[in-house]
Design a protein that fits this description.
Layout (H helix, E strand, L loop, with lengths): L8 E4 L6 E4 L7 H4 L57 H5 L1
Antiparallel strand pairs: 1-2
Length: 96
């Protein structure tokens, strides 16, 4: 069984030089496998004997996903602003 694609890729056929779109889940032949250089395009191969588990929290050294795949980050709360100090009235203004 060959490797399966996790994402859609555009690749140029090595002999005919025409562009091909491969869909997620496709298992391309060996000639096309060599043309796909992005390691993130492939599905992770499960280790034998290990059950698949729910994804954990992202680790600190892992890059955050981008685009629509990332959960929205909460907006930071606005910091309270201090009120401007009140000015004293001049004695002449207070009499009026």
């Amino acid at each position: 069984m060959g490797r399966r694609l996790a994402t859609a890729v555009h690749v140029q056929h090595p002999t005919s030089r025409e562009w091909i779109v491969l869909e997620p889940g496709d298992e391309p032949d060996d000639g096309l496998v060599a043309e796909i250089t992005n390691p993130d395009a492939w599905e992770d191969e499960p280790s034998p004997g290990l059950e698949e588990s729910e994804p954990d929290e992202p680790k600190m050294d892992e890059p955050k996903p981008f685009g629509f795949t990332a959960p929205p980050e909460p907006e930071p709360e606005a910091e309270p602003t201090a009120l401007a100090p009140r000015r004293r009235r001049k004695a002449a203004d207070a009499d009026e």
